[in-house]
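Lecture 7 notes: from sequence to structure.

We start with a single chain of 472 residues. Read the sequence below before looking at the structure.
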Amino acid sequence: MERSEARGFSAAMSGAFLLSCLLFAAINRHQRGPYMDEAFHVPQAQAYCHGRFLQWDPMITTLPGLYLVSVGAVKPAAWLFGWTGSVVCSAGMLRFINLLFSAGNFYLLYLLLFKIHQKNKAVSGFQRILSTLTLAMFPTLYFFTFLYYTDPGSVFFTLFAYLMCLYGNHKTSALLGFCGFMFRQTNIVWTVFCAGNVVAEKLNEAWKTELQKKKDEKISSRKGSFSDLIRILQFLTEYLITPKNLVILTALTWPYIILVTVFFVFVFINGGIVVGDRSSHEACLHFPQLFYFLSFTVFFSFPHLLTPTKIRKFLLSLRKHPVQYSLIAIISLVLIWKFTYVHKYLLADNRHYTFYVWRKVFQRHDLVKFVLVPVYIFAGWSFADTLKSKSIFWILMYFVCLLAVTVPQKLLEFRYFILPFLIYRLNIPFPSLYRQLLELAFYIVVNAVTFYLFLNRTFQWPNSDEIQRFMW
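Now the structure, written as tokens:
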């Protein structure tokens, strides 16, 4: 990092943290007590603070990583500064843990952008800092910085594991992946993703060697025609069934294999992924979740995905391959018809934005979900087009992980999209400075509206005195 870039980064990180502290103070003045899921998380952390480690709220569905880290941070701080009484492990103190995680996420995002795009010498230090600031203010993640939720810590350990994987420190990466798993069980998918990065790199090397042997320059490790994709899949199958290759891959990924094995042992002993209340967290094949994620990504990355150039390229591709797109449309219609699920929370809880998205869009008419298929197809095409700089093996691996982390979820919840979105956004090429500034401005506006609604547009339910607030 050059000196000017280091100063710029320090200024951006310090400024972002100061702004977050001011917002943190405002939110804690308006909402002193636990809100929403904090009603479960805060008392559980407080029980751990008092040494009651065997006490467990059956309504909590995640492992106790957040509470263990909180106690490990708050208790030494209380001893060091002489804090006593109710301030120790209060809701505000526990929320501050996530503010620290957000600062860590800022640094990790910068390091990841630097590592992933280090070969692109055209990217300036200012662009890296600007992208870091933008992703750190990603609205769905940034909002939960100020509440005692698992998301900031979950993102921190997952991004840290990804960074260590990229640097080849796979034992450290797997250990950090375990920490991420302790925050949210579905993060095991991103452990598989880290292992998949290693596998994809070896596959790409072998594929290039194969092409060189055959001197076939018409096929590459990038996205190509359908026949090219078939040949790549054939190569993938042949490579993975060769014992020698399996031994090599196992030797490279054994830390991740151990962690995944631990996960399956946990699932077997626990009788499922979810701990605590399982009635509202049932796994299913909810394929439209992929379409919701793609729409979510287009919305938050519209400066990159929704451009006149991309629309023209998509229409040209549509004219060139009408049969393929027709087949995709038919498959999409069938998946929506047969595999759309509506969770009871989505229909009942009017504090979440998803409630209004569903009511104002999808419940307007029964046919709306089918009419949106062309939008989903464009979103999918644009999404894939921005990843064309990655190898086909990386894209296949990421897509498998994306399916694994979204499709089994019955509830439409934007928080579930945070990690797959960040991984995607980190790996696309740097856009122009204008688009980066537009993206940052958009995030600032969305955040401003979100915090304004949360703080000032409160409401009450009938037969309840509790103040309700709008949130992600």
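The chain is about 70% helix and 0% strand. Keep this in mind for problem set 3.
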